[in-house]
């Protein structure tokens, strides 16, 4: 129970930190601009250096614009009248004809709300079960020597590397097995399956983060009188926040985006958002309602974009966590 409470408190603190940091980004931009102007006036930075920075920033923005163009196209299509991705007047429809009819249809007439509920159930099971296994498992593999430890690590690597090659055979066997025991249309079982698939890679990943936390920190806490759970809660988990954030994002995506297994095991009343999106694209015999499809796709992708936006700083620090010095 103490471990579960510690994990939940750590996740809550991560979300709170994301919110605080992202809410202050306009102030940080203003501060950076003012600091740059002061440095130029004081002669600490030359105009040439500033021009190079501006050129590099402009180039990065140009690349970003190219990468974001498909997203803008889909968004524009979701607001346009009609059902096509392109207008008769060009690639984009006349902005004066933009409307929210497609979003109203998705929210009030399509199965979006039911599919959203199904996806949230699957994601909740996936994240809660995988995190409750990944965090203690990564700590045990990082800090303790026990019989079979190396075999477990090699097994995790094996499941991580060969899973894609066995995907078709695994899918057939999974479908037969779940049908035989009557679990082929169960959201909780699907979430457990996703969690099981997410555990090996994410445990290995989080273990590498914890390996870089100096053992001397734990020893100092023990000398100060901290118990085992106190060391984990006050030393290991706070220092592992970047790794936990990365693992949290990966496990969320494992339950939110997966399509093939969900399409195979679920029936229409339990379809998740990814399956409903595919069903919408293939519903028409001769034509696809691209406007409604675009609106559905935008709403489906929004939680992923928000998570990446809020978790960006933690993910970046998590990817460089191996450079921590003892």
What does this structure look like?
The chain has 326 residues and is mainly α. It has a domain at 108-323: MetI-like (MetI-like fold, Orthogonal Bundle). The chain is built from 14 helices and no strands. The protein has helices at 2-23, 25-42, 47-79, 101-108, 112-143, 149-162, 167-180, 187-211, 215-223, 228-239, 241-256, 260-265, 273-281, 290-319. Residues 322-326 have low confidence and may be disordered. InterPro entries: BP-dep_ABC_trans_perm, MetI-like, MetI-like_sf. It is a multi-pass membrane protein. It is found in: Cell membrane. Belongs to the binding-protein-dependent transport system permease family. MalFG subfamily.
Task: Summarize the entry for a quick read.
With 326 residues, the chain is an all-alpha fold. The protein contains 14 helices and no strands.
In percent, how much strand structure appears in the residues?
Answer: under 5%
Instruction: Quote the distance from N terminus to C terminus.
Output: 31 Å
Structural class: mainly alpha
Which percent bin holds the helix content?
A: over 70%
Rg on CA atoms, Å: 24 Å
Task: Specify the biggest β-sheet.
Answer: none
State the CATH class of the domain at 108-323: Mainly Alpha
- Say which CATH homologous superfamily of the domain at 108-323 is assigned: MetI-like
Q: Segments where pLDDT lies below 50 for 5+ residues?
A: 322-326
Report the total helices: 14
How many beta strands in the DSSP annotation?
A: 0
CATH architecture of the domain at 108-323: Orthogonal Bundle
Order of helices and strands: HHHHHHHHHHHHHH
| CATH fold-type name of the domain at 108-323 | MetI-like fold
Shape: flat
Mean pLDDT: 79
Keywords: Cell membrane, Membrane, Sugar transport, Transmembrane, Transmembrane helix, Transport
Pfam family, one: BPD_transp_1
InterPro entries: BP-dep_ABC_trans_perm, MetI-like, MetI-like_sf
Domain ABC transmembrane type-1: 116-311
């Amino acid at each position: 129970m103490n471990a579960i409470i510690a994990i939940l408190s750590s996740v809550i603190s991560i979300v709170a930190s994301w919110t605080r940091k992202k809410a202050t980004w306009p102030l940080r931009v203003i501060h950076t601009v003012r600091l740059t102007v002061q440095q130029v006036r004081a002669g600490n930075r030359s105009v040439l250096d500033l021009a190079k920075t501006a050129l590099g920033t402009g180039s990065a923005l140009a690349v970003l614009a190219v990468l974001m163009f498909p997203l803008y196209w889909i968004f524009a299509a979701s607001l346009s009248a009609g059902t096509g991705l392109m207008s008769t007047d060009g690639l984009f429809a006349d902005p004066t004809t933009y409307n929210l009819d497609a979003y109203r249809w998705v929210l009030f007439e399509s199965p979006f709300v039911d599919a959203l509920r199904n996806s949230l159930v699957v994601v909740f099971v996936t994240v809660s079960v995988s995190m409750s296994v990944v965090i203690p498992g990564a700590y045990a593999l990082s800090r303790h020597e026990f019989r079979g430890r190396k075999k477990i690590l090699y097994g995790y690597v094996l499941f991580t590397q060969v899973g894609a090659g066995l995907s078709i055979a695994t899918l057939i066997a999974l479908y037969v097995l779940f049908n035989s025991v009557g679990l082929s249309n169960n959201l909780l079982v699907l979430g457990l399956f996703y969690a099981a698939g997410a555990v090996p890679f994410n445990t290995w990943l989080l273990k590498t983060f914890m390996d870089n936390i100096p053992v001397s920190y734990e020893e100092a806490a023990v000398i100060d009188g901290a118990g085992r759970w106190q060391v984990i809660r006050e030393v290991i988990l706070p220092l592992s926040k970047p790794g936990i954030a990365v693992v949290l994002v990966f496990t969320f995506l494992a339950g939110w985006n997966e399509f093939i297994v969900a399409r195979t095991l679920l029936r229409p009343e339990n379809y998740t958002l990814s399956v409903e999106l595919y069903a919408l694209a293939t519903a028409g015999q001769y034509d696809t309602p691209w406007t409604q499809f675009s609106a559905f796709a935008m709403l489906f992708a929004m939680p992923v974009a928000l998570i990446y936006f809020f978790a960006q700083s933690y993910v970046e620090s998590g990817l460089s966590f191996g450079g921590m010095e003892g």
